Amino acid sequence: MNIRPSFLLLSLVLLVSTLGGVAQTCANGDDTCTANEDTQNQQAADPRRTITIDNLSKYRADIHYDDGRFGKIIQTVPSKGGSPNPISTFVGHRFFVTMHGVREGLVDPTTDEQIFFTVGGDELNDKFIIPKEATTSKTRCKDRYPVCKKEAARGECTNNPGWMIVNCCQSCEEKEGYGHLIDSEVRCTRERLNATKAAFDVGSLDALFTRWATEEAFVQYEPNVISSPGKTHGAEHDGPWILTFDSFVDDEEIEALLKGAEYGGFERSTDQGNIIASSGEKEKVVSTSRTSSNAWCRRECEIMPGVKRVSNRIEEITGIPQGNYESFQILKYEVGEFYRRHHDSSGKNKNMSGHRILTVFLYLNDVEEGGETAFTDLGISVKPKKGRALIWPSVLNDDPDSWDSRTYHEARAVVKGTKYAANHWIHQYDFRNANVWGCSGSFA
Fold this sequence. Notes:
Layout: E1 8-9, E2 11-14, H1 31-45, E3 48-55, E4 61-65, E5 72-77, E6 87-90, E7 94-99, E8 106-108, E9 113-118, E10 125-130, E11 135-136, H2 148-153, H3 156-159, H4 161-167, H5 169-176, H6 184-187, H7 204-214, E12 223-228, E13 237-238, E14 242-245, H8 251-264, E15 267-268, E16 270-275, E17 282-286, E18 293-296, H9 305-318, E19 329-333, E20 339-342, E21 356-363, E22 369-370, E23 373-375, E24 380-382, E25 389-393, E26 409-411, E27 414-416, E28 419-427, H10 432-436
Parallel strand pairs: 1-9, 3-10, 12-13
Antiparallel strand pairs: 2-10, 3-6, 4-5, 4-7, 7-9, 8-9, 8-11, 12-14, 14-25, 15-18, 16-17, 18-19, 19-28, 20-26, 21-25, 21-28, 22-27, 23-24, 23-26
Helix pairs in contact: 4-5, 8-9
């Protein structure tokens, strides 16, 4: 087994044969020994192997296949003795270990070197151990991947600074002098990123919804006020603003959004957990409150003409620049899938981009039964309708830096059919630049 001196190789426990590992001498005419030789020859010729991983550390760990770049996660291993399903692999494949939900590697505390292990060629079934002592590195500014120097040399520290500073800090320090920015309190300030202009002032929210409800320019989108302060503009409910544009996206734009989802692929929806590192990383956890699948519309998706038209239209009607928007999240709900009661912002928001002040939610198809968006504290339910946009605020008109606790909502389970939807979350301050610099927790 080839042990690279710069990395700690996990303890490899070879599964011995039923002979107890005692060496044999092959005599002439010994059929048993001949069979053993044949088996050894087959093992040498067949590169396929099965490995298992026992995690004795206190950390829930992610196992990544080392593809020569940034790795591909293949399995999550429970802490303190967790041993998940076997992994089918090949001789020579290498794997590395990180804390679950983030990319911070687990290391040998005596050397501060990251844990890697390589599949050997001697046994068909190998077992690897994540030692009890495995921990996170004491070195704040270090490279997590061998490819970091190459990525820094081709300009990624400036093209994709947040992700690179957190994951390739040492190389970015050598190339650009960015090492001190590993501290999110230094890296993530509105003043440093020139993100001090707020989208909403006091009174902006009421003024915007009133324009949508009254001005001729918006009639083409078929506005319908469901809720408003004082039940104005034909609203059925007295409460926070909730409005639909019943003809907001056309078939071509819907097709573009659904096509764009294929670039990233639908995956089981996740939530952001707590910040678990001074770098600003937030743990990504599988959601227990929503069972939908989602895809993020980035790169190839967001430059599609149909997708750009929708985002431009939202910018035109809101007057809020797209730099404040999170990328389109495209959603798919199958029968029985739901998103339990939740809020799109939080009471104490310390994110650099501020509160999500508006949600623009687009229904991309008609749903045979179920799938309504229900505002649980207001007794309001909105049925999916192809081309409809549902818009509501998450903050208060009189204090847009404070959330509106009345706009809790849920996605009710689909009873029949499939539900497709997409949404832009719009922030009080610039989100796009904050995300590029790794100040949103996701490093997308």
